[in-house]
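Hi everyone,

Forwarding the result from last night's run.
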Amino acid sequence: MTIVTDQEIDDGSITAAYRRIVSHIRQTPVVRIDGGDVRLTCGEVLLKLEQLQHSGSFKARGAFVNLLTREVPRAGVVAASGGNHGAAVAYAAMRLGVPAKIFVPTISSPTKIQRIREYGADLVVGGDRYADAFAASQAWATQTGALVVHAFDQPETLLGQGTIGLELDKQGAALDTLLVPVGGGGLIGGIAAWYAGRIRVVGVEPELAPTLTKALAAGRPVDADAGGIAADSLAPRRVGEHVFRIAARHVGSVVLVSDQQIHGAQETLWRTLRVVAEPGGAAAFAALISGRYRAAADERVGVLVSGGNTTAVDFAR
């Protein structure tokens, strides 16, 4: 069992983490889009479709790294989540035969709640926001000794999310820029650590939840608003300490998108590619097609579609 610090989250440790989890995760596809799909100003766009990952989001990567590299007590694991992290931890625990207790707030989507239940975890729904679920999970860990699997501010979580960058390189995605949605920052922190300045990594946040934007402006993690249509995946109160130290070194910039732009990106992904993305999963694409991120004419841009746990497409109709 190994415990790493943020200083050790680099291409070597991410590669080692990938070897540990590769048999438990999917290598998600990369899809190229062009001007025939949507109006673009850049040379080429590649979508990394992490909504096809086990449990419906990229979060399965970090969940498996935690459970496979840390000592899990008899009490099992506990996690707080807006929904996707909880589903990922529940899925990994189910696959590995580990008890799991998951706390989510009332804003978590019914789709995510149902996924957690389907994976057999003990689920508690309560409180208005992620911070409420996190406080309840901490109390449970103190009471039982269960292992806390943090949604973003845990080195092993960042290692797992960083494997997306490794996988993109393996798939031959020679990018100039990668647009990454930001909530607590575990995803962009891990990816930025992998690339370490080799390409431009750009964060995308909802206007109503500018956690990394405010942290970079303040020079430290600070509280931010936590609202909007992506609140169950991109709206913790603040980014993590590990995340911030990596982002301050390796994230090129952060752009903000509106709820309307996120919704428009969801519709565009479905209309042009039949890709179903939840609001947080479509945020990075929203930055590109809205012009909030302005790419150069010859720029090769990657866009991470991070999750698809939504009932936005109603097949009953």
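Strands lie at 30-33, 44-49, 77-80, 100-104, 122-125, 147-148, 177-181, 200-206, 253-257, 300-305.

Cheers,
N.
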